[in-house]
Structure formats: structure tokens, C-alpha cells
Amino acid sequence: MIATVPTEKKPDEVPPAAAADGEEDEEMEEEGAPEAQGAGGEGKKKKKKKKPKKKSKLEQTEPPTIGLTKLFPDGNFPEGELQEYKDDNSYRTNSEEKRYDERMAMEDPEVTYNNIRRAAEVHRQVRKYARKTIRPGMRMLEIADLIENGVRNLVEENGLESGIGFPTGLSLNHCAAHYSPNSGDTIVLGEKDVLKVDIGVHVKGRICDSAFTLTFDPTYEKLLEAVKAATDTGVREAGIDVRLGELAGYIQETMESYEVEVNGKVLPVKPIENLSGHTIAPYQIHGGKSVLLVKNDDPTKMEEGEYFAIETFGSTGRGKVIEQGEVSHYARKVDAPHVPLRLTSAKALLKSINKNFGTLPWCRRYLERAGESKYLLALNHLVSQGIVQDYPPLCDVRGSMTAQFEHTILLRPTRKEVVSRGDDY
Ligand code: 57R
Ligand code: CO
């Protein structure tokens, strides 16, 4: 048998597998036949109606259930929105050295951007379903479940490797942050409510922290517009070597350029002075740097390689929040003191917290889901011993309305990547 270099592929040489799904045949048939029979087309065989190409691409279901590693089998997840650095960091865009650093980053499992991108794609797909499904009349517990089931399915929850990044924030009206329903919560979403949906997704501790605001009547549309614009200003003006106090000034300027007319009364939109964006570190939602929303003299600079949650909060009230209501949000302190625990139940609870959450934030429902019950005494003991931090809901004055929009950005060596950007916000 003389080995010849094959000239052109003869039909029966298609690898057996492909033939099976008839996809190829379709092609072949399509391609071959008509042309072959001379351009004149005499005796032209009637063109068989091409049945629609069976889309091989797996589509996400509704509600979302398919793990994203199934939808992105090559493990490469979509890059976010790219924004170039300005001024004396604009050289980075085409810097060979910085491009090299990024290639190295992508090869390093600790630094690769693929983890945050996978978390961000989960975030986009879950919020897409949430935005079209959340409606007045639904219980807050129901809304929390639909979001958390989506996140757990799509991120293919696997202990501390991948899962929910922090408690689903569903703060309403004058409450701006850190409210999530506890078991037994009976609150129902109302027609006139302004709902902040703050969702966290993590892959190997890289947390995608992004939030949006929903309202079901036009009264506060302008408030949402103001806060969305302020967050986009923060995202646009963020960059390597940018000082946090200055960035806060740009955010404040945009926010205060808006006003809202409510029942004929014109109200200024105020940035909430004691809330902030923040750096995000592996398994740590607050990495230590805060991006406040009112101009200040914080000279701290943003640095290459940092992850920032750029979030702004606007209010028609005092523009200041206080801790109010029942606590749902908790997190073990990163630098928790190693104090001897007298309460054995507290020792056991801490063991469960370390196993299930480590330093990732959690809420009471997640503790119950991990099998804990009658834990409140032990939990309050861990809080009083300074081992666990409690995060009560943060609210402006009753009657005021607050809104939030948030994106996670990555300060890559060559450019800024808004990893959580979507076609919705
Ligand atoms: O992002 C326990 C969580 N965060 C979830 C998120 O800003 C966070 O207080 C923390 O679950 C814990 C704030 N800034 C002062 C430091 C000036 C709040 C508001 C936004 C939020 C929810 C946040 C804040 N602090 N940490 C992240
Ligand atoms: Co945040």
C-alpha cells in the first residue's frame, strides 16, 4: 500500500463521528450537488428546503440551571468592557512590557482573570432572569431563592472553590444596603418599592460584586438615572494612580447634577456620605480601601492589579445612613482574635462557619442551609467576642428613597476591565 498525499477530501473520509449527526450531510448535500450540474442548471433538481441548522450551541434555560463550564467548554470566559487608562498611564495600552505581564497573569492560576470573568458571566445570566422575573407581590424570600438557586446552578457551587460571594442584598426604599430576608420574613415587594439587588458570585475567592436598582413605577426613575450615571463616572474616572478622594469628587459632582420631582416637590439627589465602594481581595469582600461618594482628601492611590467594587448610592433623604433593623449579614473577621471560647456551642458554630464560609460573608439562611439551628446565642457570642462582624441594614430616614448601581473593575497592566458590565447596565 503506497502512501499518497491525499489531494482533496473524498466524501467517505469524514471522521466517522461527524457523519452521525447528519449535520455534515446537510452541508455536503448543499455544497456539492447544485453546482456540479453545470451553471445552465438544466435538469436543475428542485432545491430541497434547507431545514434550519440544528443549533449545536447549548442555550441557557429559564430559570437558569446549566453550569457555565458546560456553556464555555474551552474554559475561556468573556472579557468585560475595556477602558484605556488616561494621562500618564495611557502608554500602557500598547506597552510590550505590560502586555507581557498580562500574558504571564493569564498563565498564573492565582492571577488569571478567568475566575472573575466566569463569576461575572454567572452574574449577568442570573440578573438577566431576575430582572424579568422579579415583580410586585413576590415575597422577599422567594426573590432571594430564585437568585441564589441561579447562582448556585450556574457557578456549579463547590464548597469554597465556587459559590455565592455574599448574601443577596434586597434592600428596600430608605434602606440602602445589607438587608436580606431571614427565615420567616413575610415582607412582600410592593408596586411603589425601590429595590436594590446586590448579588455576589465567587470563583476561587475572586468575588464579582455588582448591583442594580429596580422600580415598578416612574416616580423615582430620575433617582435611578442619577445613581447609574454617578457609578459610570466612577468607573470611567477610576484608574492606576488615581487618588480615592479625587475619584469621590467626580462621583459626587455627577450625582448632585440630578434632582427628582416627587408629587410636585423637587428633591436634590444626594450621595450617601457614609457608604462606599471598596477594594476586593481573594475571599475578602472589603479589601481595605474605600471609595467614598463625597469629595475628600484621601490621598490613597489605586494600584495596578487591584479589584475594585465601584458602587454609588443616591438618596432623596439626608444622604446619611444609620444601622437599623434585624441583622442578616455576617462575616468572620479576617484578622479574628484567637480568644478562648467558653460557650461550646460557639466553638462548634465557629467550626461550621470556617468550614462553610471561611472569611466570605454569609447570612442566617445560609447557616441554616448548612444545617445549623438554634444558633443565635452562639452567634451573638461570636459577635460580642469580635470574631464575627455583624452588618445591620443601613438606612436613611423613613420616607426617603435610595438607589444603588455597582460594577467590579479590574486594573489590568494594559487597561481597565469592567468585568461585570452587561447589556443591561
Ligand atoms: O458593598 C456581610 C457584606 N461592603 C457584603 C458586602 O459601605 C460588603 O459601609 C460587606 O456582607 C459585607 C460602607 N462603607 C463604609 C466603610 C464607609 C457599605 C455599602 C456597600 C457594601 C454593601 C459594603 C459596604 N461596606 N462593605 C461590602
Ligand atoms: Co460592594
From TrEMBL:
Annotated binding of substrate, by residue: 178, 286
Biased composition (Acidic residues): 21-33
Annotated GO MF terms: initiator methionyl aminopeptidase activity; metal ion binding; metalloaminopeptidase activity
Biased composition (Basic residues): 44-56
Positions of region (Disordered): 1-97
Binding site for a divalent metal cation 2: 209, 278, 311, 406
Location(s), subcellular: Cytoplasm
Cofactor dependence: Co(2+); Zn(2+); Mn(2+); Fe(2+)
Keywords for this protein: Aminopeptidase, Cytoplasm, Hydrolase, Metal-binding, Protease
Binding positions (a divalent metal cation 1): 198, 209, 406
Pfam families named in the record: Peptidase_M24
PANTHER family found in the cross-reference section: METHIONINE AMINOPEPTIDASE 2
Function per UniProt: Cotranslationally removes the N-terminal methionine from nascent proteins. The N-terminal methionine is often cleaved when the second residue in the primary sequence is small and uncharged (Met-Ala-, Cys, Gly, Pro, Ser, Thr, or Val).
Protein name: Methionine aminopeptidase 2
Species per Swiss-Prot/TrEMBL record: Polyporus arcularius HHB13444
